[in-house]
Structure formats: structure tokens, C-alpha cells
Amino acid sequence: MSINSQAPASGGYPRLAQFMAQDLGVYRRFGELNVSNILQLQAELVYLEKELKILIRLDDQSGDPIRSQYSKSAETLHKSVQGNDSPQWRKTLEVREKLKEYNAALLQQASINRLKPARNYDIRLIQSWIVRPEGGDSFLRGLEGDPWDEENESDLITVCTRQDVDIFTGWIAQTLLPWLHRIVLYRWKTPVKGHEDVGLVKWNNSYFTAVSRIITVIISTIFPSMEVLVLYFIQKMVVRVGMVLLFSATFSLSLAIFTNARPVEIFAATAAFASVQVVFVGSTSGTA
Known about the structure:
3% strand; 3 domains; 3-stranded antiparallel beta sheet; mainly alpha; 9 helices
């Protein structure tokens, strides 16, 4: 009997793994447990450090010509393992092993903290798949379903390598595109193999990135021209100044929504944009 290794997984964890392999790598950080582990290791090291210092002091004050040299000569301390074993050396080795464990835990925690929080869209997608009859059919029972509970959502991280996108592009990818797919795009998009029942489709990032870029370019072209046109037809200076404030606020908000600009970059661009408006207002006639 031959087995088709390419066939869809029958259910349970294999099928969930097949589903999450579609760029949906969302897992629990176990932040509290990781921090607790580091704190425990730290406490153990505190006691080991104290014990080692006591042994060093005892050897220094022993009056023994060899033991009193342990803190001054690493070679003498190393040789202490031959014949007459040294408590200080044994404790040093114990500290060394615990330090390796502690430092490894710190580095792992630092790496985990650099991972991004899971997107709400991905979390909802996984939660929905797990309970749907054509998906996971609620196979997770008892504690094994806890990672996806609402109370643990803040502890979920993603290992996906998606690029950071602006707010508008994220809205297209997570809201507009799924809505369009349910309405009309499903006619042309083939579901991922093995997940036809749940209708899982995978869109290339270039699709919604291109749409977002086109819209952004159009807005960036129209907005400055519209601002000049509006100010040109306003005669009252007070109203003009008010419109300058409104356009500046709209401009900064647009940068925050349509780009990944940092706050300092938004501030600088808005200041330059407002300066251009002030020059225009000052160079055209108006009434008080």
C-alpha cells in the first residue's frame, strides 16, 4: 500500500500545522514563565555567588600555603583538582554551569522580545479555523486550547517575516481585500490546496502593496494642488489661516496613515508644508 505524502492532513495538530504553515506562525510567548525562569536562575546565582565568596575568604585565611594562593593564581586553583580536591574549585564549576544557563535564558528572552506581537487578523483567523467544522472542528480540548483563548492574546507573537506596512496598506490587506474576496474575487482566486473546505486563499503582498501605492500617489498628487486652489478662492485672511491649520493637520494625519514615517519625520514634513502655505497666503491678496 502506498501513502501519498502530499495528501491533506486528516485532522488534529497535523492539519493545524498545515494551516499555520501558510504564513500564520502565531505562538505563545509564555512571557510570565520565561521571566519567572530567569528570576529563579538569578536567585540561584545570588546564593552561589555568596557561597563562592565565603569559600574564597576561607581559603585566603586558611594559612595553608597552597589554598591561600587560589585567589591569586588560577593555575594553582586548577591544579587543586589533582589529589586534594578544592571546594572552591567545585563551587566555581557549579557557578560556571549556572551562569551558562542564566546567560542563555537572557539571550533567548532578548530574542523573543524582538519578535512582533501577533496581528489581531491572524489571531481571529486561527481561532475561527479551530472551531469551524470544516477546519479544526474544535479538536483542541481542555488546556490545549488555552493558547488561543482571548485572555492569552496579549501573549501571542508571530514568527512571520512580513514587512511592516503602513496603516492604510494594513487596512487593505486585512479588511478591504477579504471583503472583496467574499463578494467577487473568490471567482478568480483558487483556495490553498488542502484547505478548499474553509476557502483559505493566499495573496501575494505585492497585490495590496501595489494598490496602496497607487492610491497614495494619487492622493499625494491631488492634495497639494487642491490646497492651493482652496486658499486661492478664500479672501478672508482669518479663514485662510484656519484653512492652513486644517490642511496641515490633514497632511500630518495622511503621513501617519499612508506611510511608515517616524514622528520626527512627520513633524519635519508638516512644518515644511505649513511654511509653503504661509508663503502662499502672504504672497496673495486677501481681506481682513
